[in-house]
Amino acid sequence: MSRPDSVVFLESFYEPMAANLARTRLEAAGIPCFLSNENLVSMMPLYSPITGGVRLHVRQSDAQAALDILHAEPEPRPTGPDVASFEADAPDPVTPRCPRCGSSDVAYGPATRNTYGFWSGLLSVLLRFPVRGNRFHCFHCGNEFA
């Protein structure tokens, strides 16, 4: 007969990450526990079925509470509206808008299309390097504008 303070095997996991997540959930609930075979399975995953995987151990007195915690479905916390996403949708006077589609999904950087004038085209040929100016690029419609 086992004593209430003796250590018992609770559950086995074939992946060390899953075992560590279970251990973390139990420790967050105040139940002391430990893992065995973790290093062996981490270094040689093919030995996991032979050794029984990563084993989770708890005290006999905490076994039922630990099983309840591990098999309980986590409830999502109620949240309010995400203020940051509403602020991101608000028009920003600094952000330029695409003249073609009106999108604010615009970035400023090197032009992707040939925007050569006569002199920059000639310079590009002589240097064998494309000389392109910086322009705004709309990621919604692909328009480039100054």
TrEMBL record:
InterPro entries: DUF2007 (IPR018551), N-reg_PII-like_a/b (IPR011322). Residues 73-94 are annotated as: Disordered. SUPFAM superfamilies: GlnB-like. Pfam families: DUF2007. Residues 16-71 form the DUF2007 domain. This is DUF2007 domain-containing protein. It comes from Hymenobacter segetis.
